[in-house]
Structures are given as C-alpha cells and as structure tokens.
Amino acid sequence: MILGNHVSQKGSNITVERLRFDFSHPTKLTPEELKKVEDMVNVQIKKNLPVTVEEMDKDDAVKSGALGFFVQKYGSRVKVYSISHFSKEICGGPHIRFTGELGHFTIIKEESAASGIRRIYAHLQ
C-alpha cells in the first residue's frame, strides 16, 4: 500500500489513450509517491494479467468483495471485472482482455480536485 487505507476512488474518466482518476487523500503526492504509483501500475500491466467479467446481482457483487464506489448508479444487475487477485470492481465500462494491452502508464499531472480529493492525469502508451 502506497498512500494508506483511507484512499478510495471518487471519480474517473478513462479513454484508450489517457485517464483522469480522482481519489481521497488529504495532501499533494510527493514525486516519490507518484513514482511508486506508476511503478505499481506498470508491474501489473507487464504481468499481462487476464481481465475477467462476471454479471451478477448488485448485492451479491458487494458481498463477493467487489469494490463499488458508485453502486447507487447501477441497476440490480452489475458487471464485476476482476484482474487476477489484484483488483475486483463493479464497473459498467468496456474493458481489455489482458493488462498488457494497456501499454506503459505514465502520470503526467497531479492536482487538487476538491478539499481532500486529489486528481491524477495519466497517459497509456
């Protein structure tokens, strides 16, 4: 864990080439923390892990341990995307089949999005 247990997703906007990711954290990330985040993501990308999807009832998804930061916006049936043992989340967007399809992850900017909310912008190449 890089920043602590208090971190949770607060928003995101993802395209094929870039992403914006908002998360709870009280202070600006140091260059060392940003590098650790980049390295952690790139290790998982290089492992070329399979990304699986399963459709299930929303309550069952939450009980299974899937993270659902915006559960209220989904209907009674949800898609749960899993990346090996690294990540398991409720999500509605399209996805890749293997993490290696993402290419290299580079954080290009980090800023405050709101009080207690940080935002990173990154490229996927």
Automatic annotation (TrEMBL):
Record GO terms (molecular function): alanine-tRNA ligase activity; aminoacyl-tRNA deacylase activity; ATP binding; tRNA binding
GO biological process, one term: alanyl-tRNA aminoacylation
EC number: 6.1.1.7
Gene3D superfamilies noted in UniProt: 3.30.54.20, Threonyl-trna Synthetase, Chain A, domain 2
Pfam (any one): tRNA_SAD
Domain Alanyl-transfer RNA synthetases family profile: 1-125
Keywords carried by this UniProt record: Aminoacyl-tRNA synthetase, ATP-binding, Ligase, Nucleotide-binding, Protein biosynthesis, RNA-binding, tRNA-binding
A single GO cellular-component term on record: cytosol
Xref: PANTHER family: ALANINE--TRNA LIGASE, CYTOPLASMIC, ALANYL-TRNA SYNTHETASE
Family: Belongs to the class-II aminoacyl-tRNA synthetase family.
Protein's UniProt name: alanine--tRNA ligase
Organism: Candidatus Gottesmanbacteria bacterium GW2011_GWB1_44_11c
Source taxonomy: Bacteria, Candidatus Gottesmaniibacteriota
